[in-house]
Amino acid sequence: MPIIVRPASEADRAGLRGPALRSWLDAYVGILPQADIDDAPAMLERAFDRRITAMRVALVDGVIAGFYSLGNSDDPEKFNYLWHLYVDPLCQRRGVGRALNDAALAELKSRGVSRAWLDVVAGNEKAIAFYAAMGWREYGREEADGLNFVLMEKHL
Prior knowledge:
Blueprint: E1 3-7, H1 13-28, H2 34-38, H3 40-51, E2 55-60, E3 63-70, E4 82-87, H4 96-110, E5 115-121, H5 125-133, E6 137-144, E7 147-155
Helix pairs in contact: 1-3
């Protein structure tokens, strides 16, 4: 099963809705407050509005199976930040996450950075285990917006 990772476009918006919502709910139901869960479809649309041109999608058999985006290359605080990496639960454990992770790290490396970082909501053990398996390591924790985050980094 070849996995193709490419830049997202506005034309991908409809194909992103299902995988994005399923993966987001898979990650956060039972961790985030119910109001956030209920707002997920609208929140994802707002994220697409802000970040669609920064997103990269993974295609399996021509269908979107996951996506990632990076921090703005013009923002020195987020320059080397892996903002989103989500895989549709229907496509997990098939190499899609690894392909997205590898593509994100290659893109960061092309920016000339030597260290990538991300944060994961504490309690999202599946994501923490995935990133650890990909060679990311925890380097701290922080609280923001009433949530606890695990901070992870990877040296490139």
